[in-house]
Each structure stands twice: as C-alpha cells, then as structure tokens.
Specification:
Layout lengths: L3 H18 L8 H9 L3 E2 L2 H5 L7 E4 L9 H9 L5 E4 L11 H5 L3 E6 L7 H8 L4 E4 L2 H13 L4 E3 L13 E4 L2 E6 L4 E12 L4 E2 L8 H7 E12 L18 E4 L7
Parallel strand pairs: 1-12, 2-3, 2-9, 3-4, 4-5, 9-11, 11-12
Antiparallel strand pairs: 6-8, 7-8, 9-10
C-alpha cells in the first residue's frame, strides 16, 4: 500500500525522468556543448580563483616535502586578508614558504596535520603562545580520513594510535583480537592543490612526487581549486593518464612561471 508521501516522491521521480527524456535542442558539436558547460572552470587569475573563500573556512592544502604545494594560490589567498581558517595539510610551512606565509600573517586558527615540520617557525611560535590549535594525525591516517570523506564513509577502525595521545576521546573496541580506535572522516570546504597539467574540463595529471596528497584532497573537498603549469584542449590528455577526473575539479588557473609574492 502506497501512502501520500510515497506517491509524491514517485510523482517527482517520474517527472524528473520525463524531463531527462525530453529532447534538447542541439547547440553545436558535442565538444562545443561541453566547452560551454564546463568552460567556467578556467579562471583568468589567481585572485579570482580564491576571491570568495570566506573567513573561517576549512581548507585543504596539497603538498609534501616541498613538492606539489599550490604556492601561488596560497599567496593569493593570504593577500586577500582571510582569517580564522582551519588548515588541513601535511605540514605547517617552511619559514615564509608554503603555508608559512599564512601563519606569518596570523590567518590560521586551527591545524590538522601529520608533520608540522622543523622549519615551521611561525606556526611553532603561535602554537607555543596558544594562538593556534593543532590536531596531530598520523600521516597514513590523515590520508585515510580524507579518503573516507571522499568515499562517503562515516569512519573506520584502526590499530594505529591505540594507547597514545592520538586515541584520546575516541571510541575504542576490539576487532579480530586487536584494540582499535574509531577515526572520523576529514571534510573541507575547499581544497587548494597543484597539478602539472589540466585540460579545459579539469582532468589532471601530476609530476612525479608532486602528486602526493593532491588527488585525495581534490576528492574530499566541496570545492577544489587547482593551479597548473599548463592547460590543454579537451582530449589532449589520454584517458589512462588522468589521475584526478574532472568531476572533482571546480576551478582551474594557470600559474606556470608565476611567483605570486
């Protein structure tokens, strides 16, 4: 027996299906239609690509060991004067480089990281002064928590961190005879990432170790903004070479040879 609420849902679904089946006027070639639909992803400047990121946003920043950092996007974001952000990154900057510039200007309120780094001078000063808070996460778990967010999982159990400060306040249970703690997914409002090449749709390739955290962050954020060395026409990247599919990319800006600061 179908109740009134169920009838309304079925009617809406039927209407949507009928709408999908309604022929659309052809506006040109398939490639042209795709370009019209997706062309808004390509931004003309770094400033435009980050101009609407608000104070207090949760932002993922790609990069590891100096490779794959979206340095130009970070500089543009810092110069906007944004504040009170939650930064999700492997490390907390190298002196004035990478995320260092944002700590230098006191724009970060909270950090989720696995390795703040020995040269994260500004972060260390502010952390010691209790001006910024830190959630320290084992590196592999940092990846898996972002991966869980990307996959729509509500959490996972792991043996990593059991019995340490990492486990404080987390649910614990025994699985397969081993103590495990529950880790929750890490979501973000934005991901700022670096890729080597993008086509006009946002399909991405990376250079060597610069790949690191960037692909998983692209999947775990509501809005992904990528700076690239080169933007190529649709079809120029062989499908088997695509690492991050375009569906996870929302804004693209070319920044090869650019040093924003």
């Amino acid at each position: 027996m179908v109740d009134d609420a169920s009838r309304m849902v079925l009617a809406r679904i039927s209407g949507e299906l009928a709408d999908c089946r309604t022929p659309r006027p052809h506006t040109g070639t398939a490639s042209g239609t795709i370009r019209e639909t997706m062309g808004h992803k390509v931004y003309s400047s770094l400033d435009l690509a980050v101009e609407d990121i608000p104070d207090g946003a949760r932002i993922m920043f790609g990069g590891f060991g100096g490779a794959g950092f979206p340095n130009n996007l970070i500089q543009a974001l810092s110069q906007r004067g944004i504040k009170d952000i939650t930064a999700i990154s492997n490390n907390c900057g190298t002196k004035d480089g990478e995320l260092g510039v944002m700590f230098k200007h006191h724009q970060v309120r909270h950090v989720i990281a696995s390795f703040p780094g020995p040269n994260s001078n500004y972060f260390q000063e502010q952390f010691a002064a209790r001006e910024v808070t830190l959630e320290l996460v084992p590196q592999g778990i940092l990846c898996e928590r972002m991966r869980a967010a990307a996959a729509g999982l509500q959490g996972f159990y792991t043996t990593v961190g059991v019995g340490t400060e990492v486990a404080k306040g987390k649910e614990e249970r025994v699985i397969g005879g081993k103590r495990c703690i529950l880790e929750m997914p890490i979501h973000a409002d934005y991901a700022l990432i670096k890729a080597e090449k993008s086509d006009e749709l946002g399909n991405l390739t990376y250079r060597l170790a610069a790949r690191n955290f960037n692909p998983i962050m692209a999947m775990a954020a509501a809005t992904t903004i990528v700076e690239v060395d080169e933007i190529v026409p649709i079809g120029a990247i062989p499908p088997e070479h695509v690492v991050t599919p375009a569906i996870f990319v929302h804004r693209i800006v070319q920044a090869k040879g650019v040093r924003y600061a």
